[in-house]
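JOB MANIFEST
job_type = single_chain_structure
chain_count = 1
residues = 375
[input]
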Amino acid sequence: MTMVTDPAAVQQVLSVTGGVDTHADVHVAAVIDAVGRELGHREFATTPVGYAALLAWLGSLGPLELVGVEGTGMYGAGLTRVLQAAGVTVVEVDRPDRKARRFQGKSDPIDAFAAARAALSGRASGTPKTRTGTVEMIRTLRVARSGAVKAKAVTWNQLKALIKTVPDELRERLRGLDGAALLDNCAGLRAARGPAPEHGPHAKRRRPGVLVDPSAACKRSLSVLARRIRALEAEVADLDDDLEPLITATAPTLLAMYGVGLDVAGQLLATAGDNPDRLRSEAAFAHLCGAAPIPASSGKTTRHRLNRGGDRHANHALWRIARTRLGYDPQTRAYRDRRAKEQKTNKDIMRCLKRYIAREVHQALLVDLTAPSAA
């Protein structure tokens, strides 16, 4: 640890700004004064005791006004909650860019001081999510649901790919089947087995016997995959039962929008967070969702392009709303036709639609998240 050696210099500090480089096991905190002078840095364990010690150390160097934290949504989530509970203003800090690291080097203290300077200068101004309300409950449940949905899709692909290579007799039996009928037939397959081994490392294991041929192995695999899909479907249904009342109670205005269902509403809520003060404007929300137009003009050409940044899951949610409206909403289809006559490409039309939808979603979120029932 390095610290200033002159106690009088510390006494002259009117206010200090902290910066934290977060990791799984330790956080490295650094402190600078109001003019950017380095006052010291220290490591703290990522435990409740370590968080309390970090906060006490930051305050011991002067009146603490602001702390910049890297990764408030990951390794810094626990520390962020402690700092916010103590009334300290916390801002989200992005990692230093590659150019800065080439010139300044890379170490945990360097990153911590860089976080403090970014917070002090105002370059980092993002408000972290509080992660203490209903929206955080929705986000965590959606993590489990998303994993189950992805695993189900992978298992379906494995099942259908395996069917293409099974013996002809078995393939003909399953040909033309899909969905529940295919799962029922695959789950009901029984593999032929021979006598169980009497010797060897597996002799003591209670096995029904050894599979006799490749056809038996295929039946066994298809049965396992089908039952796995059924189990994952039940898991998703259980999570949906937990999510539906939470989303319905939290975002009635959002759900009333054309093209917004429970899955889309849950994603947009998770992107916004529990604290609506993060959404400073509808333009900031559009930028957060990757739906803000980016200038791409050159010479006599004046145009904008799609934004590739932001939360890609939220961007996909806006895309789903737009696709639904393009398919069924007469006003949206009329807008598409009018812009097509103006020589707009499909990408430009979709970009404009997502930007308009982001404005609607932002207004609905503010209504829902600031309602007394959402507090």
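[summary]
The CA atoms of residues 198 and 204 lie 8 Å apart.
The domain at 7-121 is CATH 3.30.420.40 (Nucleotidyltransferase; domain 5).
exit_status = 0
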